[in-house]
């Protein structure tokens, strides 16, 4: 038994640097010259050191795994912003005002919006229905708040196009508003234009959304939607 342990320890010591303090005890070991009692003490001490190193490595690995699990749980768990969005669940009526050009007279229309949180309260799904230039209009929005990035992310599709508009931005607690920016294709020019959206929480029953188009560094207001919760 001791001869087998001796062989293993010698092999290990050959793999380690001679300056490694944790294995310096092996420098003193010579099975032909060391008395039996000292041989046992040396082997026991070396075994304790090996066990300690193994436990330390295991503990560090467990701590790393624990930190990773904590970070993932924080990322996937709905927080205060998600709870705020959940308060918007339900049916809303809206009044829409739109400007096609900065100097053009506005057009107005009305419609309804239904909000609901999905996937365990992690995302807000919205369905908007109304009229646009005398034609039926339907749009679907998906709003997320990324816990890791600390930003809102939004996707929008409707029956007036075939693309997806993506925007992202931050929440301002002082003004109770979120400002999101992105790009939207202008089908008349075939080029992307900058988009800015501002969502304002007036109170639990009223919200306002403003949209601005940004072209050549200049922005103009293209849309304003006033939402009122239905009883």
Report on the structure:
The chain is built from 3 helices and 10 strands. About 25% of the residues lie in helices and about 45% in strands. The protein is α+β, with helices and mostly antiparallel strands. It has 2 domains: about 80 residues; about 150 residues, Lipocalin (Beta Barrel). Strand 9 and strand 10 form a beta hairpin. The N terminus is likely disordered. Strands 1-2-3-4-5-6-7-8-9-10 form a 10-stranded antiparallel beta barrel.
Topology (elements, then pairings):
Blueprint: H1 2-15, H2 36-76, H3 80-86, E1 90-98, E2 107-118, E3 123-132, E4 135-146, E5 151-158, E6 165-172, E7 177-186, E8 191-203, E9 206-215, E10 218-229
Antiparallel strand pairs: 1-2, 1-10, 2-3, 3-4, 4-5, 5-6, 6-7, 7-8, 8-9, 9-10
